TrEMBL record:
Protein known as: EamA family transporter
TM region(s), chain numbering: 20-43, 49-69, 81-100, 106-125, 137-157, 163-180, 192-214, 234-257, 264-284, 290-309
PANTHER family, A to Z: ACYL-MALONYL CONDENSING ENZYME-RELATED, MOBA-LIKE NTP TRANSFERASE DOMAIN-CONTAINING PROTEIN
Annotated InterPro entries: EamA_dom, EmrE-like
Family: Belongs to the EamA transporter family.
Keyword Ligase in annotation: no
Domain of life, source organism: Bacteria
Organism: Actinomycetospora termitidis
Length: 323
């Protein structure tokens, strides 16, 4: 998922911002393939999530201490925001997403998760009783058509229903992420670094508790993993998913939004889907079928159309999702 966004002037930094935004999308997009390499050797989905969130918390510990040392003192609302952010967008979304990856290909799981903007659109429509624009409804229809192609529903016997449900759970958590991230751009909201680092700590605690009470299995192995046709130690996968696909991805995303503004950054953030599919093909040999590629194109086009059609405002501030 991409980090909280704020609107800032782009000025002459657009070119550099685009490069950083693409780096962020690339980093986020490889989270699924890295996780798939661990899942293939016996790691449970929440063990992968714990490695990702725990590693992120450790890596951001020093920057967080620096922020606090420079005078940041969280208010009660900041602590509430961090707690909810850690439970829902970080722990919830990732447990659901990696559980989906355990049963579906990376590309299919990610594209199901990316129906979140459509869910958010429906929620906003219901809550505000305001009919979306025709282009927005057209985008929603394109997203549904793309999802049908991605799932290849004509081969219903081969669709893993549990995997699809996990993917939809990730989409719901991601929709919540959009809403929560919008608040991070407010003047009285917690800094993005505090929200991310604190959320990673809270999410790690939640994952450990889920494993301890037995709601989901928390298991890991020391077996070697396969990445891009080569064998690597298990810890390489953990380091890559925590350092590259979480910590670097968030920091690059924050820097990109600061240069581009949230609206332009959100479009560039859609590159995560394409990077994920290509990364899964390259790293773990999950080759997408032609209908799935076509469905992916439709979903990406649908999300772009929806975000273009909706007027800028508070609800348009998030810069894009994390896997």
């Amino acid at each position: 998922m991409s980090p909280p966004a704020v609107e800032t002037p782009r000025g002459g930094r657009t070119s550099g911002g685009l490069a950083i935004a693409l780096l962020s999308g690339f980093s986020f997009g490889l989270a699924g393939p890295f996780a798939a390499s661990l899942l293939a050797v016996g790691w449970s989905p929440i063990a992968v999530v714990l490695g990702r969130l725990g590693g992120t918390a450790l890596l951001l510990a020093v920057p967080l201490v620096v922020v606090v040392a420079r005078g940041f003192r969280p208010a009660a609302r900041d602590l509430r925001a961090v707690a909810v952010y850690g439970v829902v967008p970080l722990a919830g979304a990732q447990v659901c997403y990696f559980s989906a990856v355990d049963r579906l290909s990376v590309g299919v799981a990610l594209l199901i998760e990316y129906t979140a903007p459509v869910l958010l659109l429906a929620w906003t429509w219901t809550r505000n009783a305001e009919r979306p624009r025709p282009a927005t409804l057209g985008g929603a229809a394109l997203a549904i058509a793309g999802l049908v192609l991605v799932l290849e529903v004509w081969r219903a016997a081969e669709v893993d229903v549990v995997g699809v449900l996990w993917g939809l759970g990730a989409a719901v958590c991601l929709a919540a992420y959009f809403r929560l991230s919008a608040a991070a751009g407010e003047a009285d909201g917690p800094p993005a670094l505090v929200l991310t680092a604190g959320g990673a700590v809270v999410g790690s605690v939640v994952v450990v508790l889920v494993g301890l009470v037995g709601l989901l299995p928390l298991t890991a192995t020391t077996a070697s993993i396969d990445l891009a046709g080569s064998t690597a130690p298990w810890w390489v996968g953990v380091v890559l998913v925590a350092a590259f696909s979480t910590t670097l991805a968030y920091l690059a995303g924050i820097a990109a939004v600061a240069r581009l503004g949230s609206r332009l950054a959100s479009f560039v953030g859609l590159s995560e889907v394409l990077f994920a599919v290509l990364g899964a093909w390259w790293l773990v040999s999950q080759r997408p079928t032609a209908p799935q590629i076509a469905g992916g194109v439709l979903i990406v086009a649908a999300i772009a159309l929806i975000r273009w059609a909706e007027p800028p405002g508070v609800d348009d501030r998030p810069a894009g999702p994390e896997s």
